[in-house]
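DUF2062 domain-containing protein
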Amino acid sequence: MRKIFKRFLPHHDAVHDNRWLRPFSDTLLHPRLWHLNRHSAAGGIAVGLFCGLIPGPFQMLGAAICCIVLRVNLPLALVTTLYTNPFTIVPLYWLAFELGRLVLGSASGTFVNPPEFSFGNLAAWLDAMGHWVLGLGKPLGVGLVLLAFLLASLGYAIVRAGWRYYLVRTWHARCRERQRPPSPAP
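Structure:
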């Protein structure tokens, strides 16, 4: 599995030679941001799940900053933020709103459907989305933070457990292979 991920990771020269990333190459080329191990993979997934709920187009920027600060896998975090998209954002925000209402008390308001998406007038739609999010207020804000922490913790635990399961299974298979009697030579 590790080999599959490494095949898709950009080479250090690609980051270093990119004119937009060159000023940040010392920071972005830190080995722990690109190394794939149990800690960095779980941390990258957790950062991606947490930052995926940041409203607006700042999800990947937030994930990159968190990865640099926490020194976890950057590519995994950036890819993981893509779990929020136009199809999943409304159910996730509804879940966050309900979670916030549960924590704050049931008299905190009701969920209002978001405005219809319009390709023709994107600026007006973005403005309407901003008013929609602000109209949901405190329950949504509290719920987003709680849901982000919940998803990040769950993602971290699942990746760590899955990685451990894979390592133990591989170790047992190697032990069985060593205990197998050698086959007779023809």
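The longest helix spans residues 122-179.
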